[in-house]
Write a structure and sequence with these properties.
By secondary structure, the chain is mainly β. The chain contains three helices and 39 strands.
């Protein structure tokens, strides 16, 4: 297997890996990359009993979920910028966009969950929804050592299920591999009147020859909710009311969400020589969404009264992705090169039916009301809504000298964005978009000692520019792509069993807005500067730690509305603190106590900075017991999320919606390796 495809080894403690995927560059050791990347292992995910990617990233100080448990989608903020806000899906699957489920990604099929922090257009291409804060990548499970693992789990109030995870290798040299993961869970959640049912089936087949290697991944995921949680909107001028109990639910038992995802990816590599590897990938996915609920109930006063207008929504998203390229290693004099070229095509077609609103109901966040059933207008058709084609060519070269004590990475990507938008529920062409941009990157790593890396980078992010709305005097004008710019510098220190990193960064991104003279233009700008500290590993053989601190200084640096200049952007807190620890109790072999503290500073809901969510902190605790039953490895896990039952408002999406925090939740599981 080529170094670019090989998984990095786990670090001491087994919770994170020693490296992760850096887009086009493939898997790179943390010490040798000029970027901040964290790769969370399957062991960590299972020990947290994290069922979604959002839950698995709970200890990453650069990441905040802008939704909560009980919602039918995952969305995030990384370094103060939104990710996965939309229907296109911005979670990569083995480094490729367009394969993972669009709205919510479950962890059953995840071997690693990686977070590459900061813009990465030159490395990973433009994100389908235009996110620039970072890249979340799911590394799928594939066959390694033979495995048959059965897991049974239960969560409050009455939701349970199980998972089967099987891996086998075949052939004279074990060159053929197969891994199947299947799960089914269902029942009532700790949120009032809510039930959830999920099903997963994934299959990974691979062939590992002397020169040719191939992987085939097939994935199916079903996600069903009754009374799904929705984010809240806050009426202008109304102060943010105190947070309600996380169990409270204004959604009605007749509101629902049904999401079906199917995806597949074929990856191939062929070594022309020991120094030259050709690679190619083809993949895609289909997402079907049928739901009946309000996009966001509106809080109308400080007493917590709400008004909700449910609407039937029928969505279909078809995505295809192709890429091919070459990786080669060579030397010019005393300089070693790791050179890569990649060309890629991503296409997406979206159809949607959005019914007329038939009525609304009143409720209250502290005292939800059971409302009479409002019958929806249901349609099976999905008139065309949009289609997008993203094409790009990337080139990158990592040059190293002095036995990789100095590494310089330079690269560039030429990206073209073509899109057409259609009249909602009609399907006739409303507007079109055809723009291109060039995104560079430069990164430097200096390793004066084997265990210390000084690094810095300049890299750009890329988002599709907006189309001027009907209210603008330049209605229909296509704005140039939004180019985000990041400058970052930092240091990484490996103490042998403890790893740390410290970085300072600044990301600047333009914003389209309507000026006082009603012209829509790229006149706004947002800047987020930050300091990040990460720590992971073993303080002692029986004591592990994982977490960190992020300080953010976000500011609206330009705006057509002068009053907004200097304001803090929506959803950007000043402090994000995550600290988790595990302690193997010495008096009971196999018994481990774990805990985590998560803290988020105040966040504004509006651009005028008149409405703010207060800061919040949460405590999670757990126990794990590993033993042998009849000679078979068995692990019992018990976790309590939000032990103190704290009521809080969680993250804010870029459009000003926000969720209630997770209630106290009990999680139990038992896994046995047969």
């Amino acid at each position: 297997m080529s170094a670019a495809s090989r998984l990095s080894a786990p670090y001491a403690g087994g919770q994170v890996a020693r490296g992760g995927r850096i887009g086009l560059l493939g898997n790179v050791d943390t010490a040798k990359t000029p970027f901040n990347v964290t790769s969370y292992t399957d062991r960590f995910i299972r020990d947290q009993q994290a069922s979604t990617v959002s839950e698995a990233l709970i200890l990453d100080p650069s990441v905040r979920a802008t939704q909560t448990t009980g919602a039918p989608f995952d969305s995030f903020s990384i370094r103060g910028f939104p990710i996965n806000e939309g229907t296109s899906g911005e979670i990569a699957f083995d480094g490729i966009y367009g394969v993972a489920p669009s709205l919510r990604v479950l962890t059953d099929y995840a071997e690693r969950i990686e977070v590459l922090k900061g813009p990465s257009a030159a490395l990973s291409g433009i994100a389908p929804n235009g996110g620039i804060g970072g890249v979340i990548n799911v590394v799928p499970k594939r066959a390694g050592e033979d495995l048959t693992r059965v897991t049974l789990d239960y969560g409050s109030i009455a939701r349970g299920g199980g998972q089967l995870d099987m891996a086998r290798r075949y052939g004279a040299n074990r060159e053929w591999g197969a891994r199947f993961v299947g799960s089914l869970r269902g029942g009532d959640t700790p949120i009032d009147r809510q039930s959830e049912t999920t099903g997963v089936a994934s299959l990974a087949l691979d062939f590992q020859g002397d020169r040719f290697r191939a992987w085939l991944y097939l994935l199916a995921q079903n996600d069903r909710f009754t009374a799904p949680l929705r984010p809240f909107l806050l009426k202008a001028g109304v102060p943010v009311p105190r947070a309600a109990d996380g169990r409270m639910n204004v959604s009605q038992p007749w509101e629902y969400s049904k999401v079906d995802d199917r995806g597949g990816l074929l990856r191939m590599e062929y070594d022309l020589s020991d120094q030259i590897t050709l690679f190619g990938d083809i993949g895609g996915s289909q997402t079907g969404v049928e739901r009946y609920f309000a996009s966001a109930p509106t809080i109308t006063n400080v007493l917590g009264d709400t008004t909700t207008a449910p609407q039937y929504y029928n969505l279909g998203v078809d995505r295809l992705t192709y890429d091919a390229g070459i990786r080669t290693k060579f030397e010019t004099g005393f300089i070693r090169h790791a050179f890569a070229v990649q060309t890629s095509i991503y296409t997406e077609d979206t159809g949607r039916d959005l019914s007329a609103v038939r009525g609304s109901y009143l409720s209250n966040i502290y005292n939800p009301v059971l409302a009479p059933y409002i019958a929806p207008v249901i349609s099976s058709s999905r008139p065309r809504l949009s289609d997008t084609t993203l094409t790009g060519v990337s080139v990158a070269d990592t040059m190293s000298v002095l036995d990789e004590r100095i590494l310089l990475t330079v690269g560039v990507r030429q990206q073209r964005i073509e899109a057409r938008n259609y009249v909602s529920n009609v399907g006739t062409l409303a507007s079109s978009y055809d723009q291109s941009a060039t995104s560079p990157l430069v990164g430097l790593v200096v390793r004066p000692w084997e265990n210390i890396s000084l690094y810095g980078n300049y890299i750009e992010g890329l988002s599709r520019g907006d189309i001027a709305p009907a209210t603008a005097t330049n209605f229909g004008e296509v704005l140039a792509p939004y180019v985000a710019q990041q400058v970052e510098a930092g240091v990484k220190v490996d103490f042998g069993r403890i790893g740390t990193s410290f970085s300072a960064f600044q990301i600047t991104r333009p914003i389209g807005e309507l000026s006082p003279d009603s012209r829509y233009a790229q006149t706004g700008e947002q800047t987020v500067s930050g300091l990040e500290f990460n720590v992971y590993g073993e303080i002692a053989p029986e004591l592990r730690v994982l977490g960190g601190l992020t300080l953010l200084d976000g500011v609206r640096t330009r705006s057509a509305l002068a009053a907004n200049v200097g304001n803090r952007p929506i959803g950007v807190p000043d402090v994000q603190l995550n600290l988790g620890a595990e302690w193997d109790l010495p008096w009971v072999p196999g018994l481990t106590l774990n805990g985590a503290v998560i803290y988020t500073g105040r966040q504004f809901v509006d651009t005028a900075n008149a409405q703010a969510l207060p800061d919040w902190a949460r405590l999670d605790l757990g126990l794990r017991y590993a033993t042998l039953l009849e000679g078979r490895r068995t692990t019992f896990r018990a976790n309590v999320v939000n032990v103190t039952g704290t009521n809080y408002w969680t993250g804010v999406a870029s459009f000003g919606t926000f969720f209630q925090g997770a209630p106290r939740t009990y999680l139990l599981s038992m896994s046995i390796d047969l």
